[in-house]
Amino acid sequence: MEPVEPQSLKKLSFKSLKRALDLFSPIYGQYTPCDPASKQIRISYKLNAEYGSVKNLSSGPGQEQGGNEAKDEEDKASTSSALALPGNQDAEHPQKGGVQNAIVPGPSLPPKAPNAGFSSGSAAGAMVTTSASSERYPLTYALMERIPSKWPRPTWRPPWKNYRVISGHLGWVRSIAFDPSNSWFCTGSADRTIKIWDVASGRLKLTLTGHIEQIRGLAVSKRHTYLFSAGDDKQVKCWDLEQNKVIRSYHGHLSGVYCLALHPTIDILLTGGRDSVCRVWDVRTKAMVCALSGHDNTVCSVFARPTDPQVVTGSHDTTIKFWDLVAGKTMLTLTHHKKSVRALALHPQEQTFTSGSADNIKKFSLPKGEFLHNMLSQQKSIINSMAVNEDGVLATAGDNGSLWFWDWKSGHCFQQAQAIVQPGSLDSEACIYALSYDVSGSRLVTCEADKTIKMWKEDEAATPETHPINFRPPKEFRRY
């Protein structure tokens, strides 16, 4: 007996394939001829799936069936038996509503005549139309009514334009604060001076000197004629604007002071800095009331409210903390951000605030700190400062000189501006460190790294036709 030589797996597979072809398909290279009945059923099924909801719109109310009812019933019975479809026996009778119920759901249409039916193939096609057909042939749903999105649509707002550039500082302009009477504003700079400017004309009114490092925080009291300043020299100073000199200094910070805020109803001052502590000071006695400790990194943003939480801070440790001012302890910690929270903006009327970080701009509710939503675009920059006016226009300033304007309610960015450095400055100095609205909310002032102060206002010539809203809601809120 001769030994059988081993065969490869590939050769055995081809042999098996050839044997199958010999058994089941003797005519190579040709398809099996199509059965006419099957072809008719398939075509009628496709026609009914795509055009079933509008196929009989033109049929008159008095139209009667022809003499082919027996043939139609016969075709229906043969089709259903051939396809072996489970279903109600009433589906075979159009007068009982079976065929109509089997059609893919579409828009509300005028009622059909009780005796308006399909041909034999169409009737069979109507019976086999299921939910799977709607997924496979979605053209039927093009006739459905569009459902409006639940996401709020933004209000049209005119774009903002730069109308004045003020020069006078010899270093980066790091901070800004407006007078409650809206007649002047002050700016703090890396040249260690505080300059007071006239709002209407932009002219310099006064220069205050006393700090020995750059000034990072400014606040003007609404209750007294006091101006408060804080800087990298660890000092917090109180200036009497009637005498234009320092009358108090608050000592206690172990490193530079980065942010500063006044309580709206109590004579206390809040300061945060690189020592990771937010300190509470009595304005009159210069005494430190308490130290709000709990952050793991620099406290770089703070604001105060008349009700709990009275103090909210943002830090480089990526968290936002709500503080109980009476107990001096943390009420709540928000950990939604992944990057440093350098800016916070409290809405002047609503119980909401936004936080700015390099990863995103988020909106939260007060007093519980519930997360509402992200802004619909991403500025892709370190957010140094934020401000919002009573009209609901949020302005955010980026480290790359980007100035974006947002609709507060919907989170839609309706304008993106870019800071232009003054002649003689480097392009890398196109950075906005601070910004603020005036008391009326009609002017915006930005403080930049090219030593300039820019003033912005709304473009009065803009209309909804010249600047239309280009808005799309988030994906999860879209309705097609």
From TrEMBL:
Single Gene Ontology BP annotation: mRNA splicing, via spliceosome
Region (Disordered): 54-123
Swiss-Prot/TrEMBL keywords: Repeat, WD repeat
Keyword Repeat (UniProt): yes
GO cellular component: catalytic step 2 spliceosome; precatalytic spliceosome; Prp19 complex
Coiled coil: none
Keyword Protease: no
Intervals holding WD repeats: 166-207, 208-249, 250-291, 292-333
Family: Belongs to the WD repeat PRL1/PRL2 family.
PANTHER family in the record: PLEIOTROPIC REGULATOR 1, WD40 REPEAT PROTEINPRL1/PRL2-RELATED
Protein name (record): Protein pleiotropic regulatory locus 1
Originating species: Apostasia shenzhenica
